[in-house]
Amino acid sequence: MEVLTPSQQEAVHPPVADATMSDLAFYHASEGKPLATPWQVAMVRAKAVAEFNLPRGVLLDCACGSGIQLAAYASQLKMPALGIELDRDRAIASCLNLNTIAKRFHTFDQGWHRRSSILAGDGTASEEVIQSVDIEAMGGISFLHLDPARPRNSRTHGLDEMQPNLSSVFQAWKPYLAESSRGPSIVLDLSPRLTDERRQEVESLVEEVWPGIERTWTWMSRGGGRVDRLELWLGNVSTKGISKRFVRLAPTVGAANSVIEQREVETTTEHHSLLTARRNEWVTILDAALVESGLADAWISEQLSTAANVRWADSSPRRPRIHHNGPLKNPHHPFVQATGRVVELLDKPLDEENIDEIVSTALENDISAMTIRMSLDASLQPKLQGNIDRQLKRRQGRRKAFLTKHTSSNHLLFCVQMGEKSDQ
Description:
By secondary structure, the protein is α/β, with parallel strands linked by helices.
């Protein structure tokens, strides 16, 4: 177990600009950059942890990689960091990145940075770590973060493919974690590819070690209908009464994020299937990541009353869609891909043979621009969208719309977007 002091490390390779903050650059060992946590994600987590009252001690990340998340925690909480990384080159990168963040926040000479250490070694060798670093003198371990390595090229994976695995980490560090009235403070940064079954396995492992501990699952998305992060917040850093949370990150660092939460005991909305499509009803295409998190019902209940008679047209990961009576409270919400009122139905397939008739129908409804939002052959979609764009551009329509397809028929739905002049 080699103890590295951050301030004594020197860079061998130049840093690389962060994906979410171009004026900030981090150091990475070989193949480290694709695995590194973006600074925006790291800061969102760190600021969330800072909202809790942590006991005195050090912040432990026992598989710290490039150390970006650990640096965010330490700089925000003003507490010393203890990172452990099996790969020595990555351990050195962690040191350099702690230095980078300490300098950025003008805290290089402050106590948290001077007392921080990175260890090159096994993150589950807790006794060896305790012998190498005087953790007790710093108050013990206040907080544990774990982001285990997992297969990169598989759609899903088992818990035994995580390294270090959860069981070994729990067993190694449980005796050293500072306890509060709500238990230890732990954040598990897990793969968003974990299935429901695998998440239940995680819950079972946690329950074996800390029976009855409070927990909050958190899904995080940077957009594009994809879940980028899946986390389990445990004990002292779980949110009381909240079992699930979905966070849609803002487009820029520092801007407000969109959050929806679900309480531990909450009835699930009954899903009414869509039998037919009707003029003047509303169609909303949701962020697929929201649906994947299981929090779509909670968000819908905020945006629509029970009188809206919500019907699910499609719950697929590609383009989940609901139909409802009346508009959303906030049609520009980040969880919304598109929303609009059905002004026309056309019983025709969307293809090159029918495209002129489809454009004519759009013109009859005063549509100036229309986006295709339905599954098409990858080679056909740009041709049809380009044709629609060219024909509508020459006209003087006033409304923007999107075109989608009824789930079980050829009916095309012309949906005028909420907020357009003639659709108030």
